[in-house]
Specification:
alpha/beta, Rossmann fold, 8-stranded mixed beta sheet, 10 helices, binds S-adenosylmethionine
Length: about 280
């Protein structure tokens, strides 16, 4: 849709992921750059690797990955506006090793065992049928490859009101998940957690949020919006940023690298832990 033709009504009907495409927000996986860095180092990605990224949004992970390793990258999303921005950004950086494709994680248009690494970020949290989406990630991943997930979880119980508001913002009915829920989800025969690390989100105060919104909405392309449309966008986006801040203040996330167990391997008896 041409930006000049967008109305306040259109803005009011958009969910957060659609607003990201319109605003051209840099949408990152939880943990941002350090998460991408950890994943590619832990999974030992090199130039020969074939990587699939699920839910790329405006392309942050793919571009960051390409900056570090010039491997073959395919990034998918269902949101065309975000994919277009991801494509523009990667070409702007001179990267021609990333393919951005419109596709649904529930039905991936790839052959079995195509990829050395499948990065699914926090996208599983958005799926009503997480098993199906994760099954597709496993299907397209090589037997000796890795799947990297970055699931978010509540550390503190959210109020029903908060859950309702976040669900409405992202237009996904969320059921609050805790670390144990994800541990149970990934407990799958033949699959093992190869490496994992847990984080908490920093708290962004009101001043930081207001400054961020001012900066991001000052973009040239948004100046083409009608005045009342822009005001609606500003109100809605600011409300979202405060809502997500309140939500994230109760949450953490985990970077998890999963791989298939070797068929010939016996269980490890003398396990260990990191000591001081
Ligand atoms: C919060 S962003 C993801 C940010 C970051 N790349 C990550 O992995 O955490 C979620 C993205 O997933 C996309 N998405 C939602 N449902 C999807 C589906 N069924 N298949 C592929 N992408 C999907 C959304 O359009 C959005 O761009």
């Amino acid at each position: 849709m041409e930006i000049e033709k967008i109305t306040s009504k259109d803005i009011n009907e958009m969910d957060y992921n659609q607003l990201i495409g319109l605003i051209k927000e840099t949408n990152r996986p939880p943990g941002g750059r350090k998460t991408v860095f950890e994943i590619i180092n832990r999974a030992c990605i090199d130039r020969e690797s074939n990587v699939l990224e699920i839910g790329t949004s405006t392309g942050f992970t793919a571009i960051e990955l390409s900056k570090l390793v010039k491997c073959k990258i395919t990034s998918i999303d269902i949101n065309e506006m975000s994919l277009k921005e991801a494509q523009d950004r990667s070409l702007q950086e001179g990267f021609n090793n990333i393919k951005f494709i419109k596709a649904d994680v529930n039905n991936l248009p790839f052959k079995d065992s195509e990829f050395d690494l499948v990065i699914v970020g926090n996208v599983l949290s958005l799926m009503s049928n997480k098993e199906k989406a994760f099954g597709e990630c496993r299907r397209v991943c090589k037997r000796t490859g890795f799947i990297a997930a970055v699931p978010m979880f509540y550390i503190e119980k959210p109020s029903d009101e908060l859950v309702k508001n976040v669900s409405r913002a992202i237009q996904v009915n969320i059921t609050p998940l805790y670390k144990k829920d994800w541990d149970d989800f990934f407990k799958i025969p033949d699959l093992e957690v190869y490496w994992a690390e847990k984080y908490k989100f920093d708290y962004a105060d009101d001043k930081i949020i207001k400054g961020f919104v001012e900066d991001i909405l000052d973009r040239e392309h948004l100046k083409k919006l009608e005045k009342d449309t822009f005001e609606t966008l500003k109100r809605k986006y600011t409300d979202y940023m405060f809502l997500f801040r309140d939500n994230l203040s109760k949450m953490g996330f985990c970077i998890i690298l999963l791989s298939n167990k070797m068929i010939w391997e016996d269980p490890e008896l003398y396990t260990s832990f990191k000591s001081d």
